[in-house]
Amino acid sequence: MVGQIDLDKMTDTPAKMTRNQKQKRQMILDAALDVFSLDGFRGTSLDQIALKAGISKPNLLYYFSGKEEIHTALLEGLLDAWLAPLRAMDAQGDPLTEVLKYLDAKMNMAMSYPLESRLFANEILRGAPHLENYLKGSLKSLVEEKSILLQKWMDLGQLRQVNPKHLFFSIWAMTQHYADFDVQVSAILGEDRESNFAQARAFQATMISQLLAP
Amino acid sequence: MVGQIDLDKMTDTPAKMTRNQKQKRQMILDAALDVFSLDGFRGTSLDQIALKAGISKPNLLYYFSGKEEIHTALLEGLLDAWLAPLRAMDAQGDPLTEVLKYLDAKMNMAMSYPLESRLFANEILRGAPHLENYLKGSLKSLVEEKSILLQKWMDLGQLRQVNPKHLFFSIWAMTQHYADFDVQVSAILGEDRESNFAQARAFQATMISQLLAP
DNA sequence: GTTAAAACTGACCAATTGGTAAAATTGCGG
DNA sequence: CCGCAATTTTACCAATTGGTCAGTTTTAAC
Hints:
The structure is a homodimer of 214-residue chains. The first copy, chain A, contains ten helices and no strands.
């Protein structure tokens, strides 16, 4: 996964973690992602995670202090990756192209990291207690920064005037829908995921282009 | 709530339910909605629901046979309402107007029924075991029917050619985002929900109009 | 007023849950 | 090989969970 968890940052002890510890922790996190992305924080038990990871529950608790730490480790491991595509939006680039590149990057993520997307969605649905700082901190300030950029482009007549923040919400909503609501999309379109994503990309690119071309 | 649960359909006994029973069941369902919409099926306990409803757990179980019945009753109570706006799309109407009316109706629902939207989202995230028939049944066939209608309008040159199903997904995604991800939207825009929705409506109407006007 | 039905409750049950502690096992360095 | 550290496991704990049951209270019907 992009934004592979930097495990060094997550240990409380001054000791450096061994390679085995890193691997074991990652293995636990992978198992945890499977479960948290389905049933959310409260609906996930440590036994479920341990079973999926193929280790005992106390063994799992040897590497993580508890359920909270596992969950927040997962979330923290993805936040930078989530913000990276928006950060990459380049003030020197062609405006429409930059927005379409962002859209494309978000679709790449939805396609490649559906579980992470659902983990995030589950956390938002429960009111985001573990994401409070992120939402009001780095996400908010980055959205503000890029909204100003978009507004500048619009003021220069390089993009049609729209509300930049709502543009971002619509991009997030549309792209993550294919990850989060995959069972709905598949039920309606069938299970050829590649084809579904390809169609979605084409549709969305048209939509954004029609909206923003001046 | 639109689509107020028809309680008569949900009793196993041949006996007609009294007015008090109807009220009590509704009260339980209201409490349950609060909890299920936050923590999903597995993350919700009967004790939580009972506490919120202000009754004992066995009393709650006097009216419903168990957790499953409460959850499915809630979901079933909203499915018709969820489909109604799409059903209302009128083949005799002006195409763009009909699509915009649908968009408007979906935003009305997102604004008025955020908990129901989150209940639905939670169920989808866990793979929708309680929505399987709905997704592959009435939803799928209605989407098929209305996609054919949209395609006909497009073939007549009354709307721009786009993929109708992906248009529906984008409308669902964008509108429900304001309900499902409300904590994110509020963190970024502030907590004036009416204003946020008003801006969103304007933005989306522009987006859909730009996309579909031939 | 009496009786039966409906509604409600406290106590209880087996299983599950997040976790702890001690014992056992494995790995590593000298 | 030995001693110690790291890792894993078994056993256990108090609390929670979805539910059951019997007793009590309230309501409805006559």
